[in-house]
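Customer escalation, tier 2.

The customer says the design service returned an amino acid string that "doesn't look like it belongs to this structure." They asked us to rerun it and document both sides in this ticket. The original structure tokens are below, unchanged.
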């Protein structure tokens, strides 16, 4: 039985009528730019993240871009982040004119190492960007301590609805950072029917600046205080996301259940290192990522069995050709480099049947002779 890495059609089949009705309301109203659907979604995203403000934007990359701009990053400034993440985290740093400073990750969580962050901060540092990789919120409180007042921009593209216990209280992804950024790319736990993104903050001044930046730097039509971007969240995407949002908690719970099943199934396979979730974290498992020393051989084996899989990410950002001008060399972020050679993500989406889960487990265990 082939098992895809992700099956968006399976999810769509369960909510089609709700999504179509929501989208058709926008079509019938012929109100496609901002308006009530976007405002309603922003209200719900702020509520979910327990923040005062949310601003919808065109995609997760733009969410980072306008967040960086809002805290004043630009030419001559530095932004500290992880090299083990999707390209957008650092690509947006380059595109605002700032310099990306890469520091290594924690080998267990794959999230940024706060101690390494502290060592990388200089007088030029404008922001620190921890990434909630694979659905687990980074150690935001520890990063904030070493940042010492520098803006903390949480790249929460993979963690909407995840939470972390800080000082004994559960805090949502995006809640405690200076700015949190989300992506609604279709493969996310809360994915649109195209591109979409959002930023959240507790700060009214930043909220107003983020709104201004997403609409050509304008508050009053045809008057522009700064040069911003055309990065409005499409009303059709907002409508689709509004229909999907009530299902998010159940979908994430099913991902956690699937992860627990895998963890137990691989517990006696010494060669497989299952994902580590910190005791203070509740992950949403945007990906279920194992570590194996013979990663590429296992990839080939899974492909032969029709089991979907992917490598997030095969080359750390500090070694990407486009960032060669920064001068990083192999060996400078050893944990990220090691992870890139060992990680492999397996199907984890909530619509997986038990038979499909069993197929994945059998294929992985079979490779190791179990």
């Amino acid at each position: 039985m082939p098992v895809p890495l992700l099956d968006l059609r399976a999810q769509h089949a369960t909510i089609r009528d709700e999504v179509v009705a929501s989208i058709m309301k926008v079509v019938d109203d012929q109100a496609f730019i901002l308006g009530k659907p976007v405002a309603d979604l922003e209200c719900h995203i702020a509520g979910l993240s327990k923040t005062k403000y949310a601003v919808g934007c065109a995609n997760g990359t733009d969410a980072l871009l306008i967040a960086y701009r809002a805290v004043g990053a630009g030419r001559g400034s530095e932004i500290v982040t992880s090299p083990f993440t999707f390209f957008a985290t650092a690509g947006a740093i380059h595109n605002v004119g700032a310099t990306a400073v890469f520091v290594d990750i924690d080998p267990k969580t794959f999230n940024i190492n706060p101690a390494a962050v502290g060592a990388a901060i200089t007088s030029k540092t404008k922001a620190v960007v921890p990434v909630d990789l694979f659905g687990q919120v980074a150690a935001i409180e520890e990063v904030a301590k070493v940042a010492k007042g520098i803006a903390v921009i949480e790249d929460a593209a993979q963690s909407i609805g995840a939470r972390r216990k800080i000082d004994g209280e559960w805090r949502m992804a995006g809640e405690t950072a200076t700015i949190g950024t989300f992506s609604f790319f279709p493969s996310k736990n809360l994915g649109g029917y195209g591109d979409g993104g959002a930023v959240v903050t507790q700060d009214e001044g930043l909220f107003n600046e983020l709104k201004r930046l997403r609409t050509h730097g304008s508050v009053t039509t045809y008057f522009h205080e700064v040069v911003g971007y055309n990065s409005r969240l499409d009303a059709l995407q907002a409508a689709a996301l509004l229909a999907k949002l009530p299902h998010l908690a159940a979908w994430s719970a099913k991902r956690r259940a699937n992860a627990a099943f895998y963890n137990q199934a691989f517990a006696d396979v010494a060669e497989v290192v299952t994902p580590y979730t910190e005791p203070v974290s509740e992950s949403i498992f945007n990906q279920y990522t194992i570590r194996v020393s013979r990663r590429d051989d296992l990839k080939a084996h899974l492909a032969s069995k029709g089991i979907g899989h992917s490598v997030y990410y095969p080359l750390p950002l500090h070694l990407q050709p486009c960032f060669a001008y920064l001068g990083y060399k192999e060996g400078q972020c050893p944990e990220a480099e090691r992870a890139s050679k060992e990680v492999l993500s397996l199907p984890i989406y909530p619509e997986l049947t038990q038979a499909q889960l069993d197929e994945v487990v059998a294929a992985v265990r079979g490779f190791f002779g179990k």
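Tier 2 assessment: The sequence is consistent with the input. The domain at 8-246 is CATH 3.40.640.10 (Aspartate Aminotransferase; domain 2). The chain has a mean pLDDT of 97. Sent an explanation to the customer and offered a walkthrough call.
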